[in-house]
Every structure is written in structure tokens, then in C-alpha cells.
Amino acid sequence: MGTSINLSFDEMWEKIIACDRKYDGLFFTAVKTTKIYCRPSCRSRKPKKVNVEFFYDIHEVEKAGYRACKRCQPETDHSPHTELVKNVVEFLVQHYYQKVELQDISNHVGLSPYYLERLFKQETTETPRTYLEKIRIDKAAYLLSTTDRTNLEICYEVGFQSPSNFYKVFRRLKNSSPSEYRTLISKG
């Protein structure tokens, strides 16, 4: 693979602290002091931030001298559909800011929309649409905490087509409005 998924170091750090399964297979966390690499969702004790580096490709991380974590086993696929899900998630992460329809995703992976949605939900317990919403809201939360852009600018930048939908989804996933979230983060 070896492609960039457009996440900053701090965004990837947030994903491993949250043990976020959405990004498994898209990048790997390598710990310089232990020479071990993990999935973003690994439940092992978190290393110090200064001891971490990220890799997008499993072959690159192994070439750099790291060995796989025995707990999360990042080198093994746990399902025959892992590659498909990884491909869909990678597509969503790379295109979150665009208008993405299920047909676009199914064209990308070469499956019918119905079959793709069924397989994706079976593997992740979510539809591609809800997964995309989570990626967009993660990006919006990051932008709210690191920039001075308005909520409306962020809404469109992360790919929402309407502010009302952005506010509704943001509240559902973060239990606050974007403005409340920004205030909480600045105090925290």
C-alpha cells in the first residue's frame, strides 16, 4: 500500500489513545523503545508520545526492525474480508471531504452497493455512511481544537453538505454542539 491517509501525527496519536478500530490496517504504531508495532486499536499500555512513530505499510514497519505485538497481532488478518474493509476505510479516509455516495465506494472496490454495505456492516457493525460520518466528525473535532475556523467553514471542509446535518451528527457522536466542544477543549 504505502499511501498517505492524510492524518497528522497528532491525529494518529488521538486514534491510538482512543483505541479506534476504524483505522486498523491503515497505519501502524511503532514504539521505538520496545521495537514493537501495533494496530491503532491495541489495548496494551500506551507508550510515551516521544517514543512513537507511525507507518502506513506493514512491510515498512517490519523493514525498520519492529516486531508485531503479541496482543493485537497486527500481522494477521482476522477475517477473509479484512482487505476489502481496509480498502473501503482507506477510500473513506482519503475522500471524506468530498460528496461520497455508496455507489462511488462500490465502484472503487468492484462490488454491488447492496453486497458491499452488507459485508461492511458484518465486519464493522456499521454502514459505510455511518463510518464516513465518524471520520468526518473526528476531523471536525480536530479542526475545532486546533484552528480558529468557523463551525460553518469546518462543516463544509470535512464534507458535510448541510450545516443542519453536521450539527445533528456532531451532537450524536460527541454529545455536544461544535461550539460547546470547542469551549470544552479550550478549557480542558
From TrEMBL:
Superkingdom of this protein's organism: Bacteria
Keyword Methyltransferase set for record: yes
Essential cofactor(s): Zn(2+)
GO biological process: DNA repair; methylation
Pfam families: Ada_Zn_binding, HTH_18
Gene3D superfamilies associated with the record: DNA Methylphosphotriester Repair Domain, Homeodomain-like
MF-aspect GO terms: DNA-binding transcription factor activity; methyltransferase activity; sequence-specific DNA binding; zinc ion binding
Keyword vocabulary terms for this entry: Activator, DNA-binding, Methyltransferase, Transcription, Transcription regulation, Transferase
InterPro entries in the record: Ada-like_dom_sf, Ada_DNA_repair_Zn-bd, Homeodomain-like_sf, HTH_AraC, Me-P-triester_DNA_alkyl-Trfase
HTH araC/xylS-type domain location: 86-184
Family matches, as SMART domains: HTH_ARAC
Protein name: Methylphosphotriester-DNA--protein-cysteine methyltransferase family protein
Lineage: Bacteria, Bacillati, Bacillota, Bacilli, Bacillales
